[in-house]
Amino acid sequence: MNPQRAAWLFLAPALLVLGVFFLLPVIAALALSLTDYDLYALANIHNLRFVALQNYWTLLHQPLFWSALAHTTYFVAIGVPLSMGTSLGAALLLNSPLARCKPFFRTALFAPVVTTVVAVAVIWRYLFNTKYGMVNFVLGHLGIHPVDWLGDPHWAMPTIILFAVWKNFGYNMIIFLAGLQAIPADLYEAAHIDGASAWRQFRHITLPMLGPTLLMVSILTVSGYFQLFAEPYVMTEGGPLQSTTSVLYLMYDEGFKWWNLGSASAVAFLLFLIMFAVTALMLKFARRGNDGEPA
Amino acid sequence: MNPRLAKALINGLLIGGAVVALFPLLWMLSVSFMQPGEASALPPPLLPVHATLGNYRELFVHAGMGRYLLNSLAVSSAITVLSLAFNLMAGYAFAKLRFAGRERLFQALIGALVIPAQVAMLPLFLLLKYLGLVNSYACVIVPAMATVFGIFLVRQYARGIPDELMEAARIDGAGEWRIFAQIVLPLLKPIMVTLAIFSFLAAWNDFMWPLIVLTGQEHYTLPIGLASLAREHAQDSELMMAGSVVTVLPVLLLFLALQRHYLEGLLLGSVKG
Predict the structure, then answer these.
(1) With an 8 Å Cβ cutoff, are B24 and A107 in contact?
(2) B172, exposed or middle or buried, with CB in 10 Å at 0-12, 13-18, 19+?
(3) Across chain B, what does the average pLDDT equal?
(4) Could you give the dihedral angle defined by the CA atoms of residues B222, B224, B229 and B230, in that order, rounded to the nearest 10 degrees?
(5) Is residue A28 one of the residues assigned to a domain?
(6) How many structural domains is chain A composed of?
(7) Range of A224's domain?
(8) Does A51 map to a domain?
(9) What residue in A sits closest to B123 (Cα-Cα)?
(10) Considering CB atoms only, which of B17, B117, B243 is closest to A90?
């Protein structure tokens, strides 16, 4: 058997799976989003009609879509910086020569990452319980009145953001830690001899050296956070007053609760376009930022 | 800042961080042994007064948790084994076998990573429905049998294998399958362990897709079973904590046992190359 033929045989199973169960559905999703596929079409395919961009047009005129997009944007805009800041802070602490028991702390801080979202979301629901929750109990000792964390439309999303930060920061922490360890130590020694303060060392050595890692991590984190679903599904069921209904939550309800599969596909595609635009903008700004900076 | 103060500050912050990270998990474990209703009290109790296994008994005898646990084990193991086989073969082909269009095909796969998985979910659901596969283990397992991430990870690792090893075997007349099975696979063992943990954890923790396609309780995996229990038993914190323990403990222990491999994979996967 020649290597060329062997190569295709080795590739065949994986490409077949990815082709049939990912690529084909993605193309079909685009087609589906241009139809009025609903419960009637599900029962009898002859009820299916081509509606061109009607689904997109209707969505863009629907307050529910815009509020779902606003909630998702809120989650991304606050959650990503908070999450990355926590990751970087934890990585800096772990990288410090003064830190003790590093393997223990690294494992402890990483543990929430490997846990199951549903299970830990259930735990948080009780910790943030208005009456018996540990959080309100501790805050009560500081003289703060009980907050209805998951029942108050103003507090539900911040609570979910806190949860997401707790659950996810360990992942990026490990990547930042590797990035920090790759910075040559003599850079810091030279800066130290020149009398640069810790803050200036961080600002002029650590941050620039970590630049590419920061960009990659922020793009991956933004994409991940746009896909908010399980947290509101378990903690708030999208409420209260739909204040935690994300774009994917809307897609799930539209598609699998109301069986409007055409319109749900349009939601999925809009989310994809928005994520694509946001990451492209981030890449563009990062490039411009690099060009502008003196060498 | 004086070094002793800095040292106290840094280690103090690390202890604080570890407490915040671990407290919810330890609290979960403790409450899962409490009597029904015991946790709903002020001040919130930290340890059970009379530890009981009653919540676990209730879960396994009446709530079908044993079934969910077995489902999760079966589905996650099947995904791990099958995706490992397919990703290893494809990753090796991309790294070491020459064929027309190799680089372009690989770039296309990497490019496909920008498409969120949820875009494919609705048509995939319809496809499986017409195939009569909805509400079966297969509909969770089959779409997860190959991943771009897995192929990427194996390719990165396999590129380090010297070509001379394969060339020598070819001159000796060994077929491509024998070369793969007897020379390449043993060298890929470290990345196999890494990829296996990654796949298993991802399959175990997966939520949205199983929620969509597993419509009958008898097929629920643990996260789906737990989410449905949480809607029925919102007030029974002790029971729900026991359910969370059953869901989280297996993956947490697996991670603790093999964390070096897991963290290596995380770093290898995050370096674009």
Answers:
(1) no
(2) exposed
(3) 92
(4) 110
(5) no
(6) 1
(7) 62-290
(8) no
(9) A25
(10) B17
CB-closest option in B123, B148, B211 to A29 = B123
pLDDT tier at B272, thresholds 50, 70, 90: very low
Give the pLDDT confidence of A18-58 residue by residue, as tens digits: 999 999 999 999 999 999 998 888 888 888 889 989 999 99
Indicate whether A128 pLDDT > 80: yes
Give CA–CA dist A276/A279, Å, rounded: 5
- Within a domain: A175: yes
B98's CB contacts (< 8 A; 6+ apart) are A3, A4, A7
- Over the Cα atoms of chain B, what is R_g? 23
User: 3-state SS of chain A: helix, strand, coil percent to 5?
Assistant: 75, 0, 25
ipTM above 0.90, yes or no: yes
Q: Is B112 in contact with B161 (CB distance < 8 Å)? A: no
Nearest to A134 by CA among B250, B41, B200: B41
| Band of residue B147 on the pLDDT scale cut at 50, 70, 90 | very high
| Residue at A54 is within a domain | no
Record: contact B24-A123, CB cut-off 8 A: yes
Please report the residues numbered 51 through 80 in chain B whose beta carbons come closer than 8 angstroms to any beta carbon of chain A: none
Give me the helix-helix angle, A24-32 and A261-292, nearest 10°.
110
H or E segment at A227? none
Rounded-to-integer distance, Cα B56 and Cα A63, Å: 45
**Predicted model pTM:** 0.93
Please give, rounded to a whole number of angstroms, the shortest distance from the CA of A9 to a CA of chain B. Answer: 9
Contact B116/A at CB under 8 A: yes
Looking at the complex, report in whole angstroms how far the Cα of residue A104 sits from the nearest Cα belonging to chain B. Answer: 9
B34 and A CB contact within 8 Å: no
Query: Are the beta carbons of A28 and B127 separated by less than 8 Å?
Result: yes
- pLDDT value of position A2: 74
The answer to whether A214 touches A286, Cβ cutoff 8 Å, is no
Handedness of CA A261, A263, A269, A270 (dihedral sign): negative
Question: Given an 8 Å threshold on Cβ–Cβ distance, is B248 in contact with A252?
Answer: no
Report the chain B residue with the minimal C-alpha distance to residue A168: B21
Contacts of B90 in chain A (CB under 8 A): 10-11, 13-15
Does the beta carbon of B266 lie under 8 angstroms from any beta carbon of chain A?
yes
Tell me: pLDDT of A16 over 80.
Answer: yes
Length of chain B: 273
Is B142 close to A107, i.e. CB distance below 8 A? no
pLDDT tens for each residue of A138-192: 999 998 999 999 999 999 999 999 999 999 999 999 999 999 999 998 888 898 8
Looking at chain B, the whole-number percentage of residues with pLDDT higher than 90 is: 79
> What CATH number does the domain containing A242 carry?
1.10.3720.10
CB contact B252 to A (< 8 Å) = yes
